[in-house]
Amino acid sequence: MRRIPILFALALSVLHAQPGRGPAGPCDRPCLEGIVNQYLDALVAHAPGRLQVTDDVRFTENDVELKLGEALWKTASGLGAYKLYFADPQQGQVGFYGTIRENGRPATLVLRLKVENRRISEAESLVLRGAATAQRIEMESPDPLLLETVPPAERISRTELVRRTNLYFEAIEQGNGKVAPFHPDCARFENGMKTSGVNCSDQLDTKIFDYIQKIAPRRFMIVDEERQLVFGFFMFNHPGDILWTKNADGSRRDQSAAATRPFSVDVAELFRIQDKQIRKIDALMVSLPYGQQNPFVPKK
Fold first, then answer.
1. Does some domain include residue 116?
2. Are 154 and 226 in contact (CB under 8 A)?
3. Digit-coded pLDDT (tens) for 5-58
4. What is the 3-state secondary structure (H, E, C) of 36-74?
5. Within this chain, do residues 129 and 162 fall inside the same structural domain, yes or no?
6. Which of these, 262, 220, 300, 266, lies nearest to 64 by C-alpha position?
7. In what order do the strands lie in the sheet with 277-288?
8. Are 133 and 189 in contact (CB under 8 A)?
9. The model scores a pTM over 0.70
10. Domain stops at, among 120, 141, 162
11. The pLDDT of residue 260
C-alpha cells in the first residue's frame, strides 16, 4: 500500500479539524429556523455581510430581483411580535411569516430561504406595507394547528400533500367547491382576515371568484411533512375585462371597480392538511402589475 507522506497527512488532519471546512451535515428544523433568525437579525442591523451565503445567492423582494442588502435591508427598523416558521429539511427550504417594523411603521414579511450546506442560496420575500395587516396579525398568536407535530400514522406523503393542495386552485378556476377536499371546518385567512365565510367549499360554489381566470405559476416550495403543511407562491392573474359574473342562481353580480383593472397578485399561501383534507389556508398577498414575472420561475 502506498504511504501518504507524514507532513501531507498532518496537513489534511488540520484542514478537516478547522470549523466551517468539510461537509456541513444536514440542516434539520432547528437549524433552518436558526438561519431564518440569523437573516432577520442581519436584516434589522442592515448587515447582509453577517450571513453565510453561496457565491451565487439570489434575493428578491415583491417579485423583483435585487442585490442582497437593498430595499427592506435598508429600511427595516425592528421585528414585530408575530413569528411563524415552517420547514422542509428534505429540500433544504424554510419559510417564515412575521411582522416587522419599517422605519418605525408596522409591516408584514413573508420569507423563503433555500439553504445549501448551511449557506443561503435563495432569499425570496414579500413585504406587505400596510400597517393594518400587521396590526391584525399581531392581535393573535400563531394557530396551534400550524405548529403541532402530526403522528406519523396520520400523515400523508409529500406527493399527496401537494396534489390535494393543488385541487384548491383547480376549484377556484372552475368555480366548484366540490373539486377540492375541503375539511368541514376549513377556514381561509387573507392578510389576517377570515374570508372563507361559513364554509370554504360552499363559498366557491357561489361563483364569487369566477373573475379569476388563471392561477399560474403555482409554485409549491415547502412541504413540512411533520406538520402536514404545504407552502408556496401562487400568481393570481386578473385581466380586468370581466365586468360581471353569474351567481349560483343565475343572477348577475357586477364586479367591483378594483377587480375591473388588469393586475396580478402574488399570494403566499400556507395550507394545513388534516384528515387528508384542507383544514386551514393562511394567505398573505401583494398586488403587482399585470403579467409580472417571478424571477425564480424559469424563462420559457
1. yes
2. no
3. 433 333 333 333 333 333 467 899 999 999 999 999 999 999 999 999 999 999
4. HHHHHHHHHCCCHHHCCEEEEEEEEECCEEECCCCCHHH
5. no
6. 266
7. 193-194, 182-190, 277-288, 263-274, 229-238, 214-224
8. no
9. yes
10. 141
11. 85
Phi and psi of 147, rounded to 5°? -110, -20
Cross-strand bridge partners of residue 285: 267
Cβ neighbours around 56 below 10 Å, total:
7
Residue 61, C-alpha cell as written in the block:
423582494
DSSP H or E stretch at residue 99: strand 93-102
- Mean pLDDT for 239-244 is 84
Place of cell 351567481: 247
Instruction: Using DSSP, state whether 295 is helix, strand or coil.
Output: coil
Round to whole Å and give the CA distance between 37 and 195: 30
Overall average pLDDT of the 215-240 stretch? 96
Q: Quote the pLDDT of residue 30.
A: 98
Considering the domain architecture, whether residues 250 and 127 belong to the same structural domain is answered as no
CA–CA distance, 107 with 124 (Å, rounded to integer): 16
Cell numbers that stand for 160 in this block: 399527496
201-218 pLDDT, tens digit per residue, is: 999 988 888 888 899 999
In a domain, 20, yes or no: no
pLDDT digits (tens, 9 = 90+) for 140-159: 999 999 999 999 999 999 99
- Amino acid found at 93: Q
Domain of 189: which CATH number? 3.10.450.50
DSSP-assigned letters across all residues of 193-215: EE-S-S-HHHHHHTTTTTT--EE
Tell me: do 162 and 272 sit in the same domain. yes
Does the residue 73 lie in any domain?
Answer: yes
The answer on 177 and 126 residing in a single domain is: no
How many helices (H) and strands (E) would you count in the chain?
Answer: 6, 14
